[in-house]
Amino acid sequence: MKPATGKLGVLCVGLGAVSTTFIAGVLSLRKGMGLAGGSVTQLAKIRVGRGNDRKYLKIGDLVPLCDLNDMVFGAWDIFPQNAYEAALGAAVLHPDDLSPVSKELENIRPMTAAFDATFVSRLAGQGDHTKQGTRQELIDQLRSDIKTFRNENKLDRLVVIWTASTEKFIDYKEHIHGSLQAFNEAIASNDCNNISPSMCYAYAALSEGVPFVMGAPNLCIDIPAMWQLAEENAVPIAGKDFKTGQTLMKTVLAPMLRTRCLGLDGWFSTNILGNRDGEVLDVPENFRTKEVSKLGVIDTILKADEQPELYSDVFHKVRINYYPPRGDNKESWDNLDIFGWMGHRYGMQIKVNFLCRDSILAAPVVLDLVLCIDLAARAGLKGNQSWLAFFLKSPMHDAANHEEPLNDLFQQYTVLKNKLRELGGYEPDEELE
């Protein structure tokens, strides 16, 4: 494995609440301020060895992670405000938290974004800090941005991560997305209906040999064309959709039901959210993209075909409601109607009320994914990094070969730990059924 020496560039697609909270947090940690709460790479310990030989190591002591002091930040956004102005506007962190790193944040000015308002209609007319051109021209401009950022900052490595809004739902089309050749033809013909802006970013990054992480549920790198491009250019990819709040709870509660053989009649989930993400998701075609990623989680955990008497007829409903007064303060409610001994249902419910700042939960996930995808690149790994499913709401999987996504949080954590043990030169010694 290559060492984690030199500078790592981190290019965020979108300089909004999530990315500014992430960047400001890392800059603060560099100064010895704050806590890396929620970051597995910074705080978790993993057992290596067995019996008298066992010991518990922080991940940074197990594998060579990039030092936070070696990270250089950049971004694209449809608004020209610098990272400090954007962070103040997002109002996730208090101005007192931002003040010690304000100068560094002010120096982070976004590059013009590849943007198409038809994919995020609620943002139409709100920002004009954008590029113009065909899909091929947008990709070429993004590749130029990546090269310029690398050269100006004398970077050794780069990662591109999507921290922007959820795009509208796109149907997968085999004749467009099913092969790299077909995808290239669609780009050449300027197919603006089936080639989204997020696909332009991913294509540009992979073409430049830069790892790409998809942090939203967009149809983007989870298509054969992108998998082929990543394999050809020997680049690792990961996605999709950061797992932070309500879905995180589902990947905890659903395994509990399954392991205790408790039945489930229905699971109703609703959210209120007032930030830009909530505004974008207020449009049905954008919500549909998020809904698909949320709905598929419990099915793969409960496995109705294996225990039909418990899970064959589960009614699962998900709703997200835009409520501006809350800003970044998300609140979710879940109601589970369950049954148990003798099929008894009366009074058998689980209710969860989860209140959190969405970006506070997402920022450490961004850090962990950036550090892990960089680790994967230095280890010579390429293609989909399924071991990073622990951080993702809708983990990419090879559906064409009948592979199912792994959504059980505890099994995901076992896979993550085993991979890190392997990369650290130890035996991957935990087993999955």
Please describe the structure with a list of short key phrases separated by commas or semicolons.
2 domains; seven-stranded parallel β-sheet; four-stranded mixed β-sheet
Task: Describe the model.
The protein is an alpha/beta fold. The protein has two domains: 8-242 and 360-423, Rossmann fold (3-Layer(aba) Sandwich); 246-357, Dihydrodipicolinate Reductase, domain 2 (2-Layer Sandwich), CATH 3.30.360.10. The chain has 17 helices and 13 strands. The chain has helices at 17-30, 40-43, 59-62, 83-90, 95-98, 102-106, 135-152, 174-177, 180-188, 197-207, 224-232, 246-259, 276-281, 284-302, 308-311, 358-378, 409-423, and strands spanning 8-13, 45-48, 55-58, 71-77, 111-112, 157-162, 212-214, 236-239, 263-273, 315-322, 329-339, 349-357, 383-384. The strands form three sheets. The chain has a seven-stranded parallel sheet, sandwiched between helices. A four-stranded mixed sheet has the order 10-9-11-12. Strands 2-3 form a two-stranded antiparallel ribbon. A hairpin with a 6-residue loop joins strand 2 and strand 3. Helix 12 (246-259) packs parallel to helix 14 (284-302). The longest helix has 21 residues, at 358-378. It is globular, with a radius of gyration of 21 Å. The mean pLDDT is 95.
